[in-house]
Amino acid sequence: MGIAVVDGASAASEATGIPRQTVQGWMETPEFGELRQRTREAATDELWAIVQKGFRRVGELLTGTDDLQKTAIATAIVTDKMLLLRGEATSRYESRDVTLDLDDHERELLNDAIRGELARRADASPAPDGVGVPAQAGADTASR
Question: How many helices, marked H, and strands, marked E, lie in the chain?
Fold first, then answer.
C-alpha cells in the first residue's frame, strides 16, 4: 500500500508482483483506509524532510554566490513556498474608491471634470446611435 500511495498501483504491482487490479481494489476498500492514511502521512513526512533539506541547501548556496539575480529568484521561490505552507497570501489585489475622502466641493469639481471630458470626447467623435453623454450623471452625488 505504501508504494501504491506514493508511486501508484502500477509501480506497486511491479515492485511486489501483486496484480495491479488487486492493488487498485485495496486502495478503494474501507478496510485499508487507516493503512492508506498512515502510509500517506508517512510519505508526507518523508517528503517534508526532503523539502527541508532542499531549503537548507538553497540557503547554503545563497551564501556562496554573488549572483544577485539567482539570489533574488531563489529567495522569491522559497518565500512563495513558505507563505503557501503557512496558508498566507502569495499575491495581493487591492481596490480603493478614491472619491470616499473627497468633500462636497471636491466631488463637484470631479463631476464637472468628468462631464467636461465626456463632452469633449463626444464632440471629437460622434457616439453610435443610442449612446450619449448623460445629462444628470452624478447630479445627486454632488448634492449630498
Answer: 7, 0
